[in-house]
User: What shape does this take?
Amino acid sequence: MTQAELRLCSLLLHEHFGEIVEKVGNSLLRTGPRPLRLLVGDTGLLSDQVKKALCVLIQHNLVRYEVQPRGSVEYEARSERILRILRYPRYIYTAKTLYGDPGELLVEELLLHGHLSMSCAVARVADRLTETMEDGKAMDYAEVSGTFVRLADTHFIQRCPMVPEIPPSSAKVPLPPAPALAIAEKDMYVVPRLSLVGKGKRRHSGDEEEEGEHKAKRQKQEGGSSETPPDDGIYWQVNLERFHQHFRDQALVSAVASRMDQTSSEVVRTMLRMSEVTTASGASHTQPLSSNEIFRSLPAGYNIGKQVLDQYLALLADDPLEFVGKSGDSGGGTYTVKVIWGPRASQAPPSPFPHLSLIPVLPHRFGSRCARIFRLLLRKKHLEQKQVEDFAMILAKEAKDMLHRMLSENLVSLQEIPKTPDHAPSRTFYLYTVNVMAAARMLLHRCYKSVANLMERRQHEMRENKRLLEKSQRVEAILASMQATGAEAAQLHEVEEMISGPERQQLETLKRNVNKMDASENQVDETIFVLESFIESTMKRL
Amino acid sequence: TSMAGRGRGRGRGQMTFNVEAVGIGKGDALPPPTLQPSPLFPALERRAAPLPGGEEGEYMLALKQELRRAMRGLPYFVKPGAPRRDIERYSDKYQLSSPVDSAIDWNPDWRRLPRELKIRVRRPRKGRTAPLIPKQHMALDKEETIKKLESLEKKEEEVTSEEEEEKEEEEEGKEEEEEEYDEEEHEEETDYVLSYFDNGESFGPDSDDNGDEAVY
Assistant: This one.
């Protein structure tokens, strides 16, 4: 793990779980898997504090444990998973676009708590949705359950590994120090048969006695819910990989749209949607789909004829970027969508996708002419100094300067091709080339550093203005309670005046800056996703 | 390693490769050697591109800030114990609100965790001290009824956080395990009923609101 990743993980843990959890996580990240007593020693924390921290980390899938042969339990931090905390807003927003408010809140609750049972998740979300509804209305559990089932069916959420059943005969056998959690592939998306009946409840502040009665009645109706819930032991978590697949599909569709047209992108989107759950993660192509099937699955609004569809498919298959491949002729022709990111094993040109993200970074840091040289090298693979100058139409002095800058940043590298066996310098070609993996890694490293810097600066800004922020919050609280008790406008104004003009200005500036930094963190995470996907899929092919 | 090496600046020494091939012409001055680390804030050659605005970006920004705020309030945000008081006071023994680190604020499913991690679950105690004493001395068969009544009573209370409600829902199935630990780790070694003791300090070090850091 690089220093940049370590620093970012630390910051994320600290911001979301506090100092104690951060210390424990840090120790595991920096020193590797270890047992509890070593952790206590290293962190200097109290034993109970470390235990608490581990419980939290395990609950959120950030740390895993393993029983060692000699019986001790070792804990290991999952660094790549910790970095995903940055992406939580994107997962939640995606769930909203696909499944509306219930979907959004279900995913949010699962992320906030690490994992939950279905009954618990549905109840919590129903309550939250009820809060936002008009008085007297409440969200029915059935609607939330329905969304839960759809999320499971499309694999966006999955079941957690389960505690093995302990057969009664082995009651005399001592329990293992830690359970060996496991789940079969086929069970991962199976929703337990529950009859979740009820509606969300509001948090009332008045008339508690009546509330109590109503609640008691409702409890009886729900059939003794004070006993163990019907889905006891069955927990659900968000399936991050599935969201990532969705993001990749989105990027593919928009790449097609920008290269061809809206209709072509819709065709590709349809094909991807049909293949959502049949494409194994890491597969390079979707399963073959016949053009007849595709035609039937096009969205209702799309009135293109079958022949037109066939023409589009042919066009897509012919495109040199090979978004779509033709795999056979049955059913009017069968087609697949190429989903892997990275150079293909065959002689075909490498996938354009990583380049799409590398390129925007360049003009902003290095200038548009550097970017031109970079694109040139990507296309031509290897070029001598002189050739770069000619093809890019840039003056020798400038080209040289840019190439050297990019060289020092590892965006391009120099390759020697000796003409003679003695490798004499005067008889050797020196070619500039883009080493895509090195460039991707360098940029990714930069991204981690950027986000860490953004977070630190944002926290610094908040600390610097702490006094003013607290004052502002107190004033808000006073205003709110005064309004609730029906204070007059003059009185309210007096309270508002407690914050002076310049102070208001300062608060505005602070808010603007913090928003900018938060938005930037989200933005950089998008680039992190693209680069990590590229690197991961390229590594798989090696 | 880089091209920096001996001979640099001193009338250019020999290099192992033909420098012309990489574009360093004869007689060209090479840049001077770098003698110090690069500045902390190098001059910005060009401004960064503006952030993409739009509904999606705005919504995700709001989500991010809301998540941050929410997570600080959840029991998973482990707060360090309050610093020790300067003098050990007699009343400390009776302070229910002192943050006892040997307790966890939520009820994990202990079946899923290594046994060595199990610690006492801290029940929501805001203003309710009575249940603790009767619980310890109650016979087991009466326990269920008392607990049911207690949890119903508790639900009537104005709870200030959703998490406590959830805790109650989860706790209802797990009373026995909790009980084991309450008895093992007595807090009170006294005959006095705690609810009678009031040392006048109504604010304890264990204030659950996030007073120390404002969250945006």
User: Anything to note?
Assistant: Chain A touches chain B through 93 residues (CB under 8 Å). Residues 104 and 270 of chain A are 23 Å apart (CA to CA). Confidence is low (pLDDT under 50) at residues 205-225, 341-352 of chain A. The domain at 3-77 of chain A is CATH 1.10.10.10 (Arc Repressor Mutant, subunit A).
